[in-house]
């Protein structure tokens, strides 16, 4: 049976900064699912620059049924100053729509932007705190709507802060190596989610 895998969200979900399409998070996780024995039909509707307020439009663009969805969003909510309350509400609504359509949903909330190069060292603690606030609201909204939230942000932030090679040339988006690290962190919760869905269906 084919596993219909949806990727939605922002430039991280789209793969901005990756050297090739094979290096994007969606492609890497598709291979992880295939390696676990699944026949996978991926669909990517993510849009670079998207905020949580754009998720409803992405959900409307989905063609056909979805078994499992990966939703990555939050960085642009911070850079474009979308209020955490509005961002979390929009995220929760998108998750609810996907769940009502029958999809299991894994949410990757906002990354810790304090590790990017353009943040002055004196402001990194402030930026980390703002990211934590949005991530907390996202987590509550997503879990209430029935999603699983990937608890990977703190560890990934430490790894990215320690290794500039994980960033692409723009020093904001991940490089191919960065996407490999992110996909490695997300593969276990995604595979667990698919396994739980399969068990429930059986």
Automatic annotation (TrEMBL):
Transmembrane segments: none annotated. GO terms for molecular function: phosphatidylcholine lysophospholipase activity. InterPro entries: Ester_Hydrolysis_Enzymes (IPR051532), SGNH_hydro (IPR013830), SGNH_hydro_sf (IPR036514). Residues 7-181 form the SGNH hydrolase-type esterase domain. This is GDSL family lipase. It comes from Modestobacter caceresii. The lineage of its organism: Bacteria, Bacillati, Actinomycetota, Actinomycetes, Geodermatophilales.
């Amino acid at each position: 049976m084919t596993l219909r895998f949806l990727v939605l969200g922002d430039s991280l979900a789209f793969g901005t900064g990756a050297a090739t399409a094979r290096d994007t998070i969606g492609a890497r996780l598709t291979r992880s699912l295939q390696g676990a024995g699944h026949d996978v039909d991926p669909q990517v509707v993510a849009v670079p620059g998207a905020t949580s307020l754009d998720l409803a439009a992405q959900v409307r663009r989905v063609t056909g049924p979805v078994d499992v969805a990966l939703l990555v969003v939050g960085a642009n909510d911070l850079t474009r100053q979308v209020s955490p309350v509005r961002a979390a509400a929009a995220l929760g609504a998108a998750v609810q729509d996907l769940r009502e359509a029958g999809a299991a949903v894994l949410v990757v909330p906002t990354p810790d932007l304090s590790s990017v190069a353009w943040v002055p060292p004196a402001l990194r603690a402030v930026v980390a705190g703002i990211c934590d606030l949005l991530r907390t609201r996202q987590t509550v909204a997503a879990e209430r709507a029935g999603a699983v939230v990937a608890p990977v942000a703190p560890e990934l932030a430490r790894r990215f802060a320690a290794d500039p090679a994980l960033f692409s040339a723009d020093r904001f988006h991940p490089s191919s190596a960065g996407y490999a690290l992110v996909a490695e962190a997300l593969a276990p919760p995604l595979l667990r989610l698919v396994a739980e869905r399969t068990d429930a269906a059986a």
